[in-house]
Amino acid sequence: MAKYSLRHAFAEALVDLGKKYPNLVALEADLQDSTQSIQFMKAFPERYIQVGIAEQNMMGIAAGLALSGKIPVTHTFACFASMRACEQVRTSIAYPKLNVKIFVSHCGVSAGTAGTSHHAIEDIAIMRAIPNMTVIAPGDAREMRQAAEAAIRYDGPAYVRVGAGEAEDVYTETHHFEIGKATVLRDGNDATIISTGQLMYEAVCASDELRKQGKKIRVLQMGTVKPIDREVILEAAEETGFIVTIEEHNVVGGLGGAVAEVAAEIGKAKVRRLGIQDRFSPVGTAAYILGEEMLTINDIIVSLLEFVKE
Question: What is the pLDDT of residues 93-126, one digit of tens each?
Fold first, then answer.
């Protein structure tokens, strides 16, 4: 499999979309190299607004642009969009259901050594609790490009979440991203793994390794956390009876919480949540932190086997 940065994939897709949508405008909060919005700036300098380190103001400007018929796309880190500018996102964008796209990078613990202030382990919980907000978390470059176009075509506010590092390719030409629909990456009836974001790769690798041991584990990529694909969760609950969720986010309020809510309502399956276990992660490289949080491929395999045995 090949690796590619989702930030670059989004930036490239946005430039292509800028050619199709002359009313598309990009806004940046002084992180153009990190978010890669610099690519849009070079292609369409007259449609690029640098607001500086002023995320709250950026959301207000984006709301005004949306009211003027533009399609504004804001760029910043996940921790800043979801927390520093939360009130503006909620009240100025989501409440009137404006057509603003909030692209965020450095989600989860991918900011690594930047530390807790730059880790974003609460953003899915915050954003999915806001009415009218769509929450998208693609897992590789192909899904990212498809998700970018889907978000721009969608009429309403959307939060698009990616990590800072490169992601292994998992999607194939037969896979298709659609807002509100999960993607079946592996078939199986012994148990189900539901992933979101870049841990999609670890989920697929764990399933493939367990298949060698005679266990057929279904893998679903929940590229949209909100609206959640209730139908595919229901099918997994009825057909496999056991669901493990995997996310680079606090297990409280994230993908695991969303899946557990559905499962609890139907009462059909046990759900175990793998992710950040409701604590602030240590400072280190992203790979080191994921290891400490037991989110490596081997950790997922061990946890799943233990859960099934229980």
Answer: 999 999 999 999 999 999 999 999 999 999 999 9
Indicate which residues carry an active-site annotation: 55
Rounded Cα gap, residues 302 and 310, in angstroms:
12
Phi, psi of 111 (to 5 degrees): -75, -15
pTM, to two decimals: 0.96
Listed residues 122, 145, 168: the one ending a domain: 168
Query: Which CATH number belongs to the domain containing residue 96 in this structure?
Result: 3.40.50.970
pLDDT band per the 50, 70, 90 thresholds, residue 266: confident
Q: Are residues 231 and 262 in the same domain?
A: yes
Residue 119 contacts by C-beta under 8 Å, 6 or more apart in sequence?
A: 79, 108, 109, 111, 280, 281
Please say whether the dihedral angle defined by the alpha carbons of residues 166, 168, 174 and 175, taken in this order, is positive or negative: negative
Residues 217 and 116 grouped into a single domain: no
Q: Classify residue 66: in a domain, yes or no.
A: yes
- Report the domain count for the chain: 2
Residues 224 and 147 in one domain: no
Q: Give 268's pLDDT tier (boundaries 50, 70, 90).
A: confident
Question: What residue has token string 């390719």?
Answer: 169
In the chain, what is the straight-line distance between the N-terminal and C-terminal CA atoms, in Å?
34
